[in-house]
């Protein structure tokens, strides 16, 4: 008996590959068991999350994960899987529940969820041709189609990313390299930012998503390299203020990017894209449109006009795990001119050998900041082709109408205050009485924070929180309803608001 054969007799039986005939049979058994458990958990939970709050989740996790990650004598695959699925599902947020209203997490469609299983079994990657030949063509197809939806021409390009933060990072990276190459003949990706005669900066408002600051830090510009442009009372970037700020920059500062908001995460407004693009062109600055949330309007003929001018932006961020009803992650980074990605492909490796490329064996390593990368385009393509143009429009419009209905009901209920009419699918409100304090000495900021936590502890309603800027300079706490589930009914919204008022009233007694 060989050494290899001897060693093989002393280990546990090997699991078959998931994509083999035996493996597919195991996957079928495991999937059926998981679906049964998920159904049981869903039927037994009345709210969007199991009641108990952080302490209950921590205690449950400690109990179920008390053993070692690598047990000496493991249970079988089916037993382990079922146990962990039950624990995971019990303490997860049920995004299909109508009261799961806190975050920009959509409930994926069944076809999107099933697509995840296929992606996991086949385990393709996009960095090299031999790692996923059809997956490569699928991503190119999805990028072309989405670029066309934005309004870009045949020179456009892009990549699927691990979410809006990575897309925004790539926007800062491509803007930095493109502007420094054009204005200073500097190859920033290769040469770095040392000894630059002018310091690169990014221009944005205080309402810009926090990922922009992180991206600026990673790209060597630094969070302190973000120049804050004065905005209007809502936080919108004004073309006139941008022009004034760019004109007044010191001579040793080089503006490389302006960040436009296309669907603010709180109030859903969209910056003046035509006006901003005209200013950026005149000053030779890259314009990036962060449409991670608002990009969903592209699917709706009714709402699309609010994104007028988006095709004038040099790059766009989309998140299809928000409006797109696919599972995370489904971020997209698009460029009006694919040449902006060139610095990423200049690094020579065995993944982009010249003779392979000439023969057509080309991966997408040079299009991304990642090497190994999942075939996220599969679930995007399956979902959109299954729903079609009218189906996607109906989903977006349904969420928008539900947000308008929710705002109407907030205004109609004594004790609730609406911040503003919804521009997209977010509804900002708070509990209050006639005075700034509720009459019994309750501070409204503290009260609404406590209300949110109480609802989560009870497992009845999940809400987000934010601060709303007011003309007098104050920024009171408001609660946020985020509607991304078009299956929610108006009766369910009524019930949710009644629960909120009832719980808030109990807190003030």
UniProtKB/TrEMBL annotation:
<keyword id="KW-0210">Decarboxylase</keyword>
<dbReference type="InterPro" id="IPR015421">
    <property type="entry name" value="PyrdxlP-dep_Trfase_major"/>
</dbReference>
<dbReference type="GO" id="GO:0004058">
    <property type="term" value="F:aromatic-L-amino-acid decarboxylase activity"/>
</dbReference>
<dbReference type="GO" id="GO:0030170">
    <property type="term" value="F:pyridoxal phosphate binding"/>
</dbReference>
<dbReference type="GO" id="GO:0033983">
    <property type="term" value="F:diaminobutyrate decarboxylase activity"/>
</dbReference>
<keyword id="KW-0663">Pyridoxal phosphate</keyword>
<feature type="compositionally biased region" description="Polar residues">
    <location>
        <begin position="1"/>
        <end position="10"/>
    </location>
</feature>
<keyword id="KW-0456">Lyase</keyword>
<comment type="similarity">
    <text>Belongs to the group II decarboxylase family.</text>
</comment>
<dbReference type="GO" id="GO:0019752">
    <property type="term" value="P:carboxylic acid metabolic process"/>
</dbReference>
<dbReference type="GO" id="GO:0005737">
    <property type="term" value="C:cytoplasm"/>
</dbReference>
<dbReference type="InterPro" id="IPR015422">
    <property type="entry name" value="PyrdxlP-dep_Trfase_small"/>
</dbReference>
<dbReference type="InterPro" id="IPR002129">
    <property type="entry name" value="PyrdxlP-dep_de-COase"/>
</dbReference>
<dbReference type="InterPro" id="IPR015424">
    <property type="entry name" value="PyrdxlP-dep_Trfase"/>
</dbReference>
<protein>
    <submittedName>
        <fullName>L-2,4-diaminobutyrate decarboxylase</fullName>
        <ecNumber>4.1.1.86</ecNumber>
    </submittedName>
</protein>
<feature type="region of interest" description="Disordered">
    <location>
        <begin position="1"/>
        <end position="21"/>
    </location>
</feature>
<feature type="modified residue" description="N6-(pyridoxal phosphate)lysine">
    <location>
        <position position="322"/>
    </location>
</feature>
<dbReference type="Pfam" id="PF00282">
    <property type="entry name" value="Pyridoxal_deC"/>
</dbReference>
């Amino acid at each position: 008996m060989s050494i290899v054969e001897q060693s093989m007799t002393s280990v546990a039986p090997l699991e078959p590959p998931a994509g083999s005939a035996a493996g597919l049979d195991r996957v079928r058994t495991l999937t059926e068991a998981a679906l049964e458990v998920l159904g049981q958990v869903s039927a037994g939970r009345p709210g969007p999350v199991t009641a108990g709050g952080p302490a209950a989740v921590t205690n449950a996790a400690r109990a179920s994960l008390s053993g070692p990650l690598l047990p000496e004598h493991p249970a079988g695959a089916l037993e382990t899987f079922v146990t962990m699925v039950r624990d995971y599902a019990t303490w997860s947020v049920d995004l299909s529940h109508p009261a799961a209203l806190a975050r920009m997490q959509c409930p994926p469609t069944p076809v999107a969820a099933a697509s995840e299983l296929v992606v996991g079994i086949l385990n393709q990657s996009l960095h090299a041709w031999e790692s996923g030949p059809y997956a490569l063509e699928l991503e190119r197809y999805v990028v072309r189609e989405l670029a066309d939806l934005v309004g870009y021409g045949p020179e456009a390009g892009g990549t699927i990313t691990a979410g809006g933060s990575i897309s925004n990072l790539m926007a800062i990276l491509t803007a930095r390299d493109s502007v420094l190459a054009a204005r200073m003949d500097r190859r920033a990706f290769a040469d770095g930012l040392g000894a630059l005669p002018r310091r690169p900066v990014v221009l944005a408002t205080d309402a810009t998503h926090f990922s922009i600051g992180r991206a600026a830090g990673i790209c060597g510009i630094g969070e302190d390299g973000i120049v804050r442009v004065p905005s209007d009372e809502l936080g919108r970037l004004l073309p006139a203020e941008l022009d004034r700020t760019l004109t007044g920059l010191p001579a040793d500062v080089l503006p490389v990017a302006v960040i436009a908001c296309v669907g603010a995460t709180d109030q859903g407004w969209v910056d003046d894209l035509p006006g901003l693009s005209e200013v950026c062109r005149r000053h030779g600055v890259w314009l990036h449109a962060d449409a991670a949330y608002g990009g969903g309007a592209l699917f709706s003929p009714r709402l699309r006009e609010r994104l007028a001018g988006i095709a004038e932006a040099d790059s766009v961020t989309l998140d299809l795990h928000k409006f797109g009803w696919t599972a995370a992650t489904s971020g997209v980074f698009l460029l009006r001119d694919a040449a902006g990605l060139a610095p990423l492909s200049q690094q020579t490796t065995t993944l982009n050998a010249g003779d392979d490329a000439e023969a057509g064996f080309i991966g997408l390593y040079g299009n991304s900041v990642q090497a190994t990368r999942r075939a996220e385009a599969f679930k995007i393509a399956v979902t959109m082709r299954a729903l079609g143009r009218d189906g996607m429009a109906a989903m977006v419009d349904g969420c928008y109408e539900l947000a308008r209905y929710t705002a109407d009901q907030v205004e109609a209920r004594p004790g609730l205050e609406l911040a503003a009419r919804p521009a997209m699918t977010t509804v900002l409100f708070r509990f209050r009485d006639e005075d700034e304090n509720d009459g019994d000495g309750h501070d409204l900021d503290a009260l609404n924070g406590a209300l949110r936590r109480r609802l989560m502890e009870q497992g009845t309603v999940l809400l987000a929180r934010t601060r709303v800027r007011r003309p007098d300079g104050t920024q009171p706490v408001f609660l946020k309803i985020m509607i991304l589930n078009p299956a929610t009914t108006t009766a369910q919204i009524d019930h949710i608001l009644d629960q909120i008022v009832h719980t808030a009233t109990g807190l003030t007694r």
